[in-house]
Structures are given as C-alpha cells and as structure tokens.
Amino acid sequence: MDHSIFLDFLSSLKLLFVGYIPAVILGIILGSFIGMNPLVYQICKRTLQIPYSIPPIALLPLALILFRELEVATSLVVFFSAIWPLILNTAKGMRKSRTQGNNIRVAINHIFSALRTGIWTAWFTVIATEMLTVGKGLGFLIWNSYKSGNYNVIIESLIYIGIIGFLLDQLLDITGNILSQLISEERKEI
C-alpha cells in the first residue's frame, strides 16, 4: 500500500468510526428502551421505518446546508446511516428477549446483527460521501482515479474497500458468536 492510499485508508476509517461509534451507543440505548416498553415498541416499530427508508446519501445536501462544515456534515450522514438499523434491530431483540423469559442471548444476537447491518450501511455511506465531497479517502481516490483514467488505482481501492468491509463484518460476527456462547455457558451453569 503506497503512502497516499494509506492516508486515504485512514481517512475513510476515521470518517466511519466518528459517525458509527456514537450511532452504536445511542442506537443500543434507544433500542433497548423501545424494546422494553410494549406500547413504545408498537409505535416506534412502524414510525422509525420512515427515516430508515431514506437513503443516507440523500441527507448529505441537507447536512451541508445545516452544518456548513464538511467533516461535521459527512460524519452526521454516516451517523444517520447506522442509527436506524441499530435502534430497530436492538428493539426487536429486546422485545423477543422479554417474550422468551428475558433470554439475553436472543437480545445479543439481534444487537450484533444490528451492528453488522449498521457498519455495512455506514461503510457504504462513507465511500459515497467521499466520492461526492470530502476530497480524501478511498471513495475520493476511486472517483479521482476514474477522472484521471488511473484504472489500476480504482481496482486497488475497491479491493481495500472490500477487505475492510469484510474484516469489520467478520469481527462483529465473531465477537457476537463468542459473546452469545459465553452467555449460553453461564446459563447452563446456573
């Protein structure tokens, strides 16, 4: 990996985590609250589908108008791309957990499914926003390479994007499985 691609790689990861981590924290908290309250769950499971149905990249112009600072606007778009699946899947998991005698393993499986969906959506949004605005990152590198006819860099960048997405997904999948198994072991001992 040459120096400039490495810097673009770091820039993309920074944008991903600055938007994704707050979405994880807030999404799990709100989703847990929604899932524990049957009335709130019934209301939110439908109404939250509306913002979830908006493609995150469509929010970019509005975020740029409201915040005017590029990094803040793009981080906010990444945040919004991840928060809806996190809230909805966490709420669903908490709800199912309660109906199955507070089976925490069910909640954990749903939360990690939400984390995986959220990271995928956030990663997609990072690349798309970089192509449109940021001026750095792997998405920008692909778009700039296209405009200059440097097709080898496009392929190389796509490979990095795929590898990063795969590794993040697998990290969450493995962590979720380990945690779920640990909880199963504890329940057997009780």
Labels describing this entry:
190 residues, mainly alpha, MetI-like fold, 8 helices, 88% helix, 0% strand, flat
Quickly give the structural class.
mainly alpha
Number of domains: 1
Q: In the CATH scheme, what's the topology name?
A: MetI-like fold
Strand content: under 5%
CATH level 1 name: Mainly Alpha
What is the typical, i.e. mean, pLDDT? Answer: 91
How would a textbook summarize the main sheet? none
Number of helices: 8
Characterization of this structure:
- It is built from eight helices and no strands.
- The protein is mostly helical and 190 residues long.
- The chain has one domain (3-189): MetI-like (MetI-like fold, Orthogonal Bundle).
State the gist of this model:
The protein has 8 helices and no strands. It is mainly alpha-helical and 190 residues long.
Task: Outline the fold blueprint.
Layout: H1 3-36, H2 38-47, H3 49-52, H4 60-67, H5 70-99, H6 104-134, H7 138-148, H8 151-189
